Amino acid sequence: MKALSVIILILSPILCIAQSAEELYTKALKSIENEDYKEAVSILTKAVEANSKYKEAYNQRGFSKNQLGDFYGAIGDYNIALEVDSTFADALVNRGEAKFNLGDDYGAMEDYDKAIKYDSKSARAYTNRGFAKYNLEDLQGAYFDFSKAIELDPNDADKYFNRAVVKAELEEYISAIDDYNKSISLDPSDPDAYNYLGVAQYNIGEVEKAIEGYNKSIEMDASDPVKFENRALAKSTLEDYEGALADYNKSIELFNEDPDTYNLRGVVKYNLENHEGAIEDYNMAVELDPYNPVYYDNRALSKMALEDYKGAIQDYSYSIELFPTDPETFHQRGLAKIQKGDKYDGCLDLNTAVELGSEEAKASVKEYCK
């Protein structure tokens, strides 16, 4: 009886410890559910102190650290969980996410590959691997992974959205539209889906439909400057320049540091023959990004319209410094020089444009350089 008593005394504390770790783990899951990740880390630390082989606890503590932005700490916890069980697919997926968050796409893919090896039904592993491939510009690989994720979980709107983005980048716009519509049917509350749908429709020439999508997206979320810029571009295509101007104004009101938006608004003002206003916008574009030759070309056009030939020549010269092989810029500078009265130098520019391949410059040479 004494021997039996000793055994009972030895086993009893172990059973208490195991039960305590499990209780702590359950409590921590509730904290995670409530997005109280700091509390979850604290509780799970106690759980692994009670049971140093508790792989699920390490995995969830890693998840909580990842949510708190402690990606290296998260990886450390996933490593311990995987030391306990190297086939623990969920920990592999989670470690891949932490590596992905650190910009280590290749390392993330290695973990996703292993996770799929041990759990071929993990839609999350395929989805995440798709994101890593997308970042590495392997669009076909991302397409495959997002398709596989949909096969495993066909009722998730985000998965169709992800695949649609890839299809659009592969210029498979009609198929992308199908996926965006499917995403919307599963979750009609996502404004980005309507916005991206509009972009795909715009790219196949369905401009009116695109505007409908942008309208819906803006109705749901009027805080995104890109949505207004997209709608403005569509309105410009339909020559609704006043409507486009209003949208560019709103886009700049929301975010005033994008040079392209100023440039595009300048183009609209040019089409409305507001050349002074256009030049003001091109000035802002150049101030924000002085290395884009398009901004100088556009500003030169407005200066030409105002008969500021000297200013136009200066802008075309800046553009040529940045992009010395554009025949159209030489062509336009040549015309500006001729308008200014400098026929000799103007014809030199026109001939350079011809040498660079401009057919239009050939006609100008015949007209001005006899």
Question: Strands, helices and their partners?
Answer:
Blueprint: H1 2-33, H2 37-50, H3 55-67, H4 71-84, H5 89-101, H6 105-118, H7 123-135, H8 139-152, H9 157-169, H10 173-186, H11 191-203, H12 207-220, H13 225-237, H14 241-254, H15 259-271, H16 275-288, H17 293-305, H18 309-322, H19 327-340, H20 343-355, H21 359-368
Helix pairs in contact: 1-2, 1-3, 2-3, 3-4, 3-5, 4-5, 5-6, 5-7, 6-7, 7-8, 8-9, 9-10, 10-11, 11-12, 12-13, 13-14, 14-15, 15-16, 15-17, 16-17, 17-18, 18-19, 19-20, 19-21, 20-21
Pfam family, one: TPR_11
Keywords: Repeat, Signal, TPR repeat
InterPro entries: TPR-like_helical_dom_sf (IPR011990), TPR_rpt (IPR019734), Ycf3 (IPR050498)
**Structural class of the secondary elements?**
mainly alpha
End-to-end span in angstroms? 122 Å
How much of the sequence is in beta strands? under 5%
Number of helices: 21
Described by strand count, sense and barrel closure, the largest sheet is: none
Along the chain, the helix and strand elements come as: HHHHHHHHHHHHHHHHHHHHH
Radius of gyration: 30 Å
Percentage of residues assigned to helices: over 70%
Unreliably modeled segments: 1-18
Find the count of extended strands (DSSP E, 2+ residues): 0
Report the mean per-residue pLDDT as an integer: 94
What does the overall shape look like? elongated
